[in-house]
Amino acid sequence: MLLHFQDSAKVKTRNVAFETAYYARDSITLSQLRDLSSKRRAIEESINGSSHLTAAIAREMAGGITSPIAQDLLKLEGYLPLLENLIECVQREIDNKPQVRQWTIDLRFRWTSPLSGSTGTSLTGPKYFRIDDLRYELCMVLNLYSALLRERALEVLPLDQVKAAQLFRQAAGVYQHTAENVLPQLQSSLAVGAERPPEASVSVARIMSIVCLAEAQAVTARRAEEKGTTGSLLAKLHFGVVQFLDEALELLQEVEPESVHVSEKFRRFLNICKVLHESRSQRYIAAEFRTEEKLGMAVGVLRHSMNRVQSVRSPNDDAWKPVYKQEVDALVQLLRKCESENEFIWRLRVPRVDELPILEGRRLVAALPYQPFGLDRDFVFVT
């Protein structure tokens, strides 16, 4: 998109040792539990910034992959099958054997929430949200996996737009799976009215899935721009991004009753990004009117767009400022040209806002469904 929200990957967690909570009846189960802990520890060290591996060793361990983001994705793809398999095995017994449930509580899954608007109370570091449920662990790991897919998409975007769009769609599918298949089962472990991280909210997972689709749509529009597609189609593609973001903003209204506090920065991201893509769409429409010598209509569209952009406060984020300024400057420049041409040559009436054309969108992207890894191993516990 014209702006990017990358905070969702800035998550941290605390250590978990599965073999200390689940008592293995045989050596195979014990080995699998230790493997789980080991793979989780590798992820923990990476996202917490506590890994002591050199870049060369990390590259060798990842089979020659040089991108740290891709390396982390590989670690998650090694951990997720084991975690999903453990949940499936434990769930067979957890409802009938209270002691198994107690072991899950002893694991104490703790994660920070980059999407949270709640302020931390600890003087020693970031705020950790603790929910004692294996499905919370799966929820947060899937959120991290999705966030890193988005980061990877941005990394490959300059070189491979098709791959970038695919990664955004893949991330959308992971968020969708989390919302539909993981979080509904987790809700029974959450106390009514208790504070929870946004990542544990069905609404927020749906919002993030839609944001990923908006990003994939924006990449599609970018490819179309580089191919010299007509302005009318480009306007529809950019307004397709706006339509996705409108859906996300509508869902955001459902979050508050869930006792979830979403960060103001994320809210601003959605609003600013929506207005900028709307502006880009209107610039293409105005340029088409200018080509057709309908300068009055072009001026009306651009003035309305300028009012919309000015209604949004300029972003404070250093990464967003240049993008915002570039888009506003382009809008101002085109408006001046159209006003000048209309004033000195055409002298056409500028229509009222209710006389302007209604924007249309064309959405061309859909989520790629996430398929659980389907690992089938038996865990035999002492109960």
Automatic annotation (TrEMBL):
BRO1 domain span: 1-383
Species: Riccia sorocarpa
Entry protein name: BRO1 domain-containing protein
One Pfam family matching this protein: BRO1
InterPro entries named among the record's database cross-references: BRO1_dom, BRO1_sf, BROX
Family: Belongs to the BROX family.
